[in-house]
Inverse folding.
């Protein structure tokens, strides 16, 4: 049985790279927007939570793409929640093209935080709206993995600028993914391969900081780590090319 | 009489900055996508032109915003063409909010180029489809101005990476606008003012080049110039804060 809600999209010109296929960043953008819209529809959007001084924070993300769709391709994203843990909400996504073929699977972990203390809050606090959403349907892929620290073979410095930041003045999730993929040789994108991406968001980074993006490549695995000025890891990720 | 075609939009979460208002870049993105969709609808899209070895290239852009709309605001863009010059096509846009109030006006100049020679082609070549589109309606703002060379008070270097480039492996128009606005102090955005932006696209820049973005501020005018490795200006712009 299919659970959750389904939202329709199309790959727009601004979503594609030089191969005319959607970028991983643009697909992640669509996925996270879907999370926001679906939470709002269920009375759990950031607008509703903010009235209680609460907000959602993405802590881990796992995405698997068999392929990336071409420009103007219609596709849909179905999303459902299936874990009633006390501190972590697990939101899943399935991406399907116009012919009904699944090409992407996503599992994401979110915490509800106290906006002032910046600490996770027990989800039983919103049990009345949250628990009825629980689905029996399992996640479509393995849960997001913990990513080990990279031992970078190359690094790149990036000063956080206006166009990187979101409404909180924190670096936008998509920009982290851009910064990491920008470290890869351009040929990586010329011949796309199926991939699994695991991202672990550790700490926020802010306007004016200088980030160092490190890359370690080991065979079919690319490991990334983004550190802030003070040497603290703010984000880690691994890409497994399949 | 209203001419041209109208397209509907909404300010999405990825379009706003920390003030929760749309960024200039996101509005320009919507404007240029509208140009592409409307040209296609009229049989003059890049897909149709490419069969004749032709393409559209944006040479100049002028945008005026009285204000920038807030997140989730619905708005519409009306576009029309009103100049039958031989080498430059003038495409206009009017941006209107859900209450029917105009908040943005745009005039843009495009050349049709020979894809291999990279030189402008006489528009009479496509007179049969192009001329019937001509409107009597004047442009909603002054035509894009030639921008003088800046004498930069500060500069910033930017290496062109994967996430900067478009389907041609050239730097995306939006990234130029991001690079320029990123030079401004963050307070500029905290208290938005009406503005007019003139951009002059001079030369393409490519993956792997290092660009130098220069800013000269003179009262209510900010002048920008982006130069490539070889010192050649690839893009100039001025912002007039009103």
């Amino acid at each position: 049985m299919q659970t959750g809600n389904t939202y329709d999209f199309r790959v727009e010109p601004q979503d594609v790279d030089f191969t005319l296929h959607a970028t991983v960043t643009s697909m992640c953008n669509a996925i996270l927007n879907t999370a926001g819209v679906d939470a709002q529809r269920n009375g759990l959007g950031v607008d509703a939570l903010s009235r209680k001084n609460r907000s959602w924070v993405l802590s881990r993300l796992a995405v698997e793409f068999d392929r990336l769709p071409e420009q103007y391709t219609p596709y849909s994203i179905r999303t459902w929640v299936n874990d009633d843990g006390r501190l972590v909400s697990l939101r899943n996504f399935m991406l399907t093209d116009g012919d009904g073929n699944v090409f992407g699977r996503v599992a994401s972990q979110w915490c509800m935080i106290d906006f002032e203390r910046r600490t996770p809050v027990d989800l039983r606090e919103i049990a009345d709206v949250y628990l009825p959403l629980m689905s029996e349907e399992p996640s479509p892929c393995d849960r997001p993995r913990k990513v080990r620290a990279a031992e970078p073979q190359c690094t790149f410095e990036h000063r956080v600028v206006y166009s990187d930041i979101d409404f909180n003045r924190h670096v936008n999730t998509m920009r982290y993914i851009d910064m990491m993929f920008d470290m890869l040789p351009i040929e990586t994108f010329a011949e796309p391969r199926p991939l699994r991406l695991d991202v672990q968001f550790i700490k926020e980074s802010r306007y004016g900081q200088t980030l160092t993006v490190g890359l370690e490549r080991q065979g079919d695995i690319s490991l990334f780590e983004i550190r802030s000025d003070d040497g603290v890891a703010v984000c880690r990720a691994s890409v497994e090319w399949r």
Observations:
- The longest helix of chain B spans residues 24-41.
- Helices of chain B lie at 24-41, 46-50, 127-130, 173-181, 187-190.
- Chain B touches chain A through 30 residues (CB under 8 Å).
